[in-house]
Write a structure and sequence with these properties.
This is Type 4a pilus biogenesis protein PilO. With 184 residues, this protein is an alpha+beta fold. It has two domains: 61 residues; 104 residues, 2-Layer Sandwich (Alpha-Beta Plaits), CATH 3.30.70. Helices cover 55% and strands 22% of the residues. It contains six helices and four strands; from the N terminus they run ααααβαβαββ. β3 and β4 form a beta hairpin. The longest helix has 40 residues.
């Protein structure tokens, strides 16, 4: 029995000596385990972010037509040729004669866009003013305005002036319209 007790004591002393003499090694093992757990958590977080990114990319791909429509509503540039064709087609469809069309860029500083701290200075778009001279009937103008409102490209009517034409038909008017349209 004494032999067993001595063997147990010697084993415990040996273990104590190994542990106390190799404390830095044990601490390294413990910190390495903590680092491994931290890296595992980072890996899981990265995988979760990759999953979210994949979902966003697939959602974007699924809504690509909506993004293209948005680009058409607020194009990247003035796109004046397309604008002329649109307005001419709208006028023709409604039975109006498009006599004149003029374009003018709006100075954003004059609108208040140049002031620091104003909400207009954070606008990410430019404005073009379009002046149209049309001839036709009043119902045709109403339909033209309705179609302009429902048109894909964003346009706002800022003023309308009309007068009777100097012809024999009193129901034909001359219309001067001022529209604003926007681009990025």
């Amino acid at each position: 029995m004494i032999k067993n007790a001595i063997i147990i004591i010697l084993v415990l002393v040996f273990v104590a000596i190994v542990v106390f003499l190799d404390v830095p090694g044990v601490q390294n093992v413990l910190t390495s385990r903590k680092d491994i757990e931290i890296q595992k958590q980072r890996f899981l977080d990265t995988q979760e972010l990759e999953g979210k990114i994949e979902k966003l990319v697939s959602s974007y791909e699924g809504n690509k037509d909506v993004v293209e429509k948005t680009t058409y509503i607020l194009p990247d540039n003035e796109d004046l040729p397309n604008l002329i064709v649109q307005l001419e087609a709208l006028a023709f469809e409604q039975g109006l004669l498009l006599e004149k069309i003029e374009f003018a860029a709006v100075n954003q500083d004059a609108v208040g866009g140049g002031e620091e701290g104003s909400t207009a200075s954070t606008q990410n778009y430019q404005t073009i003013t379009i002046t149209l001279k049309l001839m036709g009937s009043y119902p045709a103008l109403k339909n033209f305005l309705k179609e302009t409102e429902e048109n894909m490209r964003l346009m706002d009517v800022s003023s309308i002036n009309f007068s009777t034409s100097s012809g024999e038909t009193p129901e034909i008017f001359e219309f001067d319209l001022r529209l604003n349209t926007y681009y990025q």
